[in-house]
Write a structure and sequence with these properties.
Length: about 120
C-alpha cells in the first residue's frame, strides 16, 4: 500500500505540473495571438467648432480609458462618459459629439479632433 501511495504522490505533482504548463502555454498563445488594433496610448487635439477653444484628449487603449474615464474603444469609435455627458469620437472622420441629457431635453455639441503625431 505504501508503494501505491508513493507512486500516486509522484504522479500527482507531475500531473499538476503538466496541467500548469498547459495552462501557461495556452495563455501565452492567446496573448501572442491578440493583434493590437491600435497603439496603447493615443492623443487627439480637439477644437470646439463654435469658440475655437482646443484641448487634448488622451486615450489609453490598454486600460480602456479616455482622460482617466472608462471607455468603449473599437476600431471605428471611442465613447466615454464624463460628468453628466457622453462623448463619442468617430475615428475615421475625427468628429467628436458631446451629448448631455437634462430634464429640459439636453443638448448636443459638435467638435473636430485630429490625432496628435
Amino acid at each position: 500500500m505504501s508503494d501505491d501511495l508513493a507512486a500516486g504522490s509522484i504522479e500527482r505533482p507531475r500531473s499538476a505540473r503538466a496541467a500548469a504548463i498547459r495552462v501557461l502555454a495556452v495563455s501565452a498563445a492567446l496573448l501572442l495571438d491578440r493583434a493590437p488594433a491600435q497603439a496603447a496610448a493615443l492623443a487627439f487635439q480637439c477644437v470646439n467648432s463654435a469658440s475655437g477653444a482646443s484641448w487634448k484628449v488622451l486615450v489609453d487603449d490598454e486600460r480602456r480609458t479616455v482622460d482617466g474615464n472608462p471607455a468603449q474603444i473599437s476600431p471605428s469609435h471611442i465613447s466615454w462618459r464624463e460628468g453628466t455627458g457622453i462623448y463619442d469620437l468617430d475615428r475615421a472622420t475625427g468628429a467628436l459629439t458631446f451629448t448631455n441629457a437634462s430634464s429640459t431635453g439636453g443638448y448636443t455639441l459638435f467638435h473636430k479632433c485630429q490625432p496628435v503625431r
